[in-house]
Predict the 3D structure of the following.
Amino acid sequence: MSEHVRETDLVVIGGGPAGLAAATSAAEAGAHVVLVDRNPQLGGILNQCIHDGFGLHAFGQVLTGPEFAERCVDQALEAGVKMHSDTLVTELNADRTLICSSAGLRYRLRAKSVVLAMGCRERTRGMLRIPGTRPAGVYTAGTAQWLTNMANVRVGQRVVILGSGDIGLIMARRLTWEGAEVAGVIELLPYPSGLPRNISQCLDDYDIPLHLSHSVTCIHGRDRLEAVTVARFDAHRRIIPGTAFDLPCDTLLLSVGLIPENEISRRAGVMLDPITSGAAVDERYMTNVEGIFSCGNVLHIHDLADWASEEGARAGRSAAAYSLGAMSNLNDRRVLIEPGEGIRYTVPQSVARTADRVLLSFRVTEPGEHKTAEVRADGHVLAAQPVRHVHPATMVQIEVPCKGGIDADRLEVRLR
């Protein structure tokens, strides 16, 4: 292979909604931007999401996934972003040097800043360690979605879905439209893990049963899946004796969570948050490696593509400011942001003492009604926001004004 060296202000890795928004905002801020994506078509997961529900926040109207992706790509092109699709980043170093491979050509990219926007992947059966045989007919929900929407392949006739994540719920409706019977959605938690609107539109509207506090305990079948054993679990996630039953099916879809794609981030020395599995970032979305930023589902899992896109735009502006030498407070002391009562995680995880405002994103630990989200510093409330409904599936955001800086070592986000 021949090797070429190219230099640019900023490289965005990933061409999904967050990456495209980051590239667009950085280019509009005056940086020379190269976007690299391993897929032949830009847009990421949006291209296989043919249902609507996208774009209301970003464009003020309801769009399908491909329509949302097309608008994002058009915006990036108009801003002057250089697109490198069908290109794999095989290595990222702390000095912001990338090794890329495309069509037999291997080359290096040197950038003043890098935005990580690689998205996420699905948890698999191997990660769940479900006992039983290994027949055909067991898919992740996203794979089944690609086969159905992109390859026009029918995945099965009688389907069971393990997990009530949004992709699984959407596939329950999609497969019903295709003429398949969805025998049930099985969820280990005592509440659904998908958005309430998807529970209503994808399950309730089609009378698809939802079994809460249940899980699949065994898979049956030799060549093709024949049935799964389902049992009820108690609050300590132990099987309740006498509750197991067999559910005949030829297809099992797994919708059991998403994992940020951070393999190249680790190799670059980026520190990851053990809760989100994404990078630990500050209010500028910069990681612990100076000049490397992170956004979208590679940072933490978003329930709306619009929010991933908005976060990408903010990260892109920060990365452009760094590339162009316009970023201040690089050496300021950091204030840690910690999740308190009722909060699972927060993003960002730290903030500069001199920051004048911080936009915090967080998720709660359990559903609730009529709560108040508070940000505290040494027992004093910096910001409070009433939230009518809270749910672990729904990300909450709160803006914290910090005029005059933050005179504390830690901030705590809590729910009361």
About this structure: Residues 124-256 form a domain with the FAD/NAD(P)-binding domain fold (CATH 3.50.50.60).
